[in-house]
Amino acid sequence: MIAALAHVRNWIFDLDNTLYPASVNLFPQIDARIGRYVADRLGLPIDQAHALQKRYFHEQGTTLAGLMAEHGVDPHDYLGFVHDVEMDVLEHDAPLVAAIARLPGRKLIFTNGDAPYARKVLGKLGLGEAFEAIHDIHATNYVPKPQPQIYRGLCEAYDLDPHASLFVEDMARNLAPAKAIGMTTVWVNNGSEQGPGPAQDYIDYTVTDLARWLHQVMEDA
Questions:
Q1: Do residues 169 and 14 make contact, with C-beta atoms less than 8 angstroms apart?
Q2: Distance between CA atoms of 111 and 107, rounded to whole angstroms?
Q3: Strand partners, 186
Q4: Would you say 24 and 121 are in contact if contact means Cβ atoms under 8 Å apart?
Q5: Which candidate in 9, 65, 110, 199 could, as Cys together with 60 as Cys, close a disulfide (CB 3.0–4.6 Å)?
Q6: Residue 135 pairs with which residues in a beta bridge?
Q7: What is the pLDDT of residues 69-114, one digit of tens each?
Q8: Is 141 left (phi over 0), alpha (psi -120 to 50) or beta?
Q9: 27 pLDDT tier (thresholds 50, 70, 90)
Q10: What pTM was computed for the model?
Q11: Which of 66, 16, 53 is closest to 174 using CA atoms?
């Protein structure tokens, strides 16, 4: 392993647009279903529903957080609806499977989605048995990334030393709280629209191909 990462004992990964590239267009299916849910639940035209969906996302971290706070939406109903998507766009990713298998230490998923959906995605990618745990939106009591307290909660739940942990994400804003508590951070710049702002001091590594980078990390051992 490269010397700069020799301290890493815990490998934490986001799910959507991180373990698969944004270019496969799985998440746009979910995004569209979120818009439909908001429109149907609140009786709004689809354009107004879309605007509200995005406002909640930017202001509260997820659309769900806003819907729960402002409209009393049942999270199970919401998540069941928005994650009911076809996953045939995903394929077994042999290089990524091999790369993650080589990593020493503990491996976890940290997602604003829910575990049933995450397991489906991981299964399609060939990563169904690769991770110790999935820390999902239910585990955080529906508080989403990038709220700082849930990063501390993740570490407490699994007895993780943040200074010995590395977090991989496609949404740069979700890396800032991880860096603040001592994690090494990796931004996956693979086509997601959620790129970093002007201040990037919370990003330690920027990668475009996660599997290739992980292999490089291990080859430099």
A1: yes
A2: 13
A3: 168, 205
A4: no
A5: 65
A6: 110
A7: 999 999 999 999 999 999 999 999 999 999 999 999 999 999 999 9
A8: left
A9: confident
A10: 0.92
A11: 16
Cα distance between residue 89 and residue 175, in whole Å? 27
Average pLDDT over residues 48-72: 93
E runs forming strands in 35-140: 106-110, 133-135
Taking the C-alpha atoms of residue 39 and residue 49, their distance in angstroms, rounded to an integer, is 5
Q: In what order do the strands lie in the sheet with 10-13?
A: 133-135, 106-110, 10-13, 165-169, 184-188, 205-207
- By the 8 A CB rule, do 123 and 87 touch? no
Specify the 3-state DSSP secondary structure of 199.
Answer: coil
Residue whose token pair is 């491996």: 107
- Hey, is 140 helix, strand or coil? coil
pLDDT of 194 strictly over 80: no
CB 130 within 8 A of CB 107: yes
Q: Are the CB atoms for 80 and 130 separated by under 8 Å? A: no
